[in-house]
Amino acid sequence: MTRPVLLMLLSRHPYAENSGRASMLRQRIAQAKLVFDTRLVVLGAPTGAAHDQGMTFIPLAKPLSVALNVMRLGAAPMQTWLYHSTATRLAVAQLAQESGAAAVYIDMLRLAPLAADIAPSCARIIDYDDLLSTRYAQSASGGYEVMGFLSRRVGPLAPLARAFARPILSAEAHRCERYERALRANADLVLFTSRVEAAAFGGGDPRVMGAPPLVPAHALPDQVGDKLIFLGNMRYGENIVMLRALIGAVKALEAAGEWPAGAVIDVVGDHAPELVLEADPGAFRFLGRIDDLGALRGAGVFLAPVLGGSGVKLKVLDGMALGCPVVATPKALEGLTARANRDLLIAPDPLRVLRTALALRARTGLKRMLAERGHAYVSNAHAPAIGERVAEAMLGAVKRRQETL
What we know:
By secondary structure, the protein is α/β, with parallel strands linked by helices. The protein has helices at 20-32, 63-72, 78-81, 86-99, 132-142, 148-153, 158-163, 165-186, 195-202, 237-255, 273-278, 314-321, 330-333, 350-360, 364-381, 387-403, and strands at 5-10, 37-43, 55-58, 101-107, 123-129, 189-192, 208-210, 227-231, 265-268, 284-288, 300-304, 326-328, 345-346.
């Protein structure tokens, strides 16, 4: 039986990046392949490696198009300006027509304008990931470092963006909120990584679905170690803020004489060299990126001092899947259905997260109990089998669109 074609518009190379979003895209592709014949279209440049095979690459908008987008896409989120051009929009429509696509998958709001010329018979599946309006509103009020996107894409503009960050982010929050509502009205399926966020945004609308990250759980360890572990890509704004909060917390504990001799926080993930200089070398050990996270199974206590953002925090799920107890701020729990102080420990701020984690290291029985409960949560709520439901929902979007023709 011939499968319908799904044209997948992707904002990044899913197999060349190690980011959390790239990981989610790899999962979405695998889910789509259960029921669709997929066509992958990446907005960006090929890497020249073998994993480019089978993908179509379309370059980002040129500077002139970006300037024009300020006027023609002024009501849309700023991120759309860096991708849109008339030529790209027409190329996407042509790819959809030539492939006979029954549906188009749109990776995040920034790519939505590129689907404008695709035939109305083609179902729209929009993966919001999380609510940018919420993230930017929090950032505008809290001085949170969220300009990493501009830094990577248009480096020379980053200092200007940071200087005017608060008004920019406040205006962007309002633009995103309007855009999120408008896109939902024309979508056949809206996906969120957080079930909690999907329920709040959808209000019972069956077209809005929580499709959480799927995290295969490792076997539970026989015992849990006493390491302190902070995991994340330290080139990403949220993780930089968390790391700096931990650096500040360690300094406060050292000043109060409360930092235990020999205690070290293992920082796991890619990082800029200058971040190392900010931390006490006796209290922080930067391990860089680890290809196999299984090496951390049962290694100790995971720290998640989340201060901003929205959606699901993968560092919490990774810790649980590795059989490690997690100590986190309330913000880390917002996108999850895990239970506070049962599946993980919650402390109100980074300083108390660190104090709680230090005390937990010596509590062998409590560490084991938290590891088991967290492991059970991730094994049920984020099991790979859930991907089949996402695939069925995608196929259902096609059927709904066809019924309206």
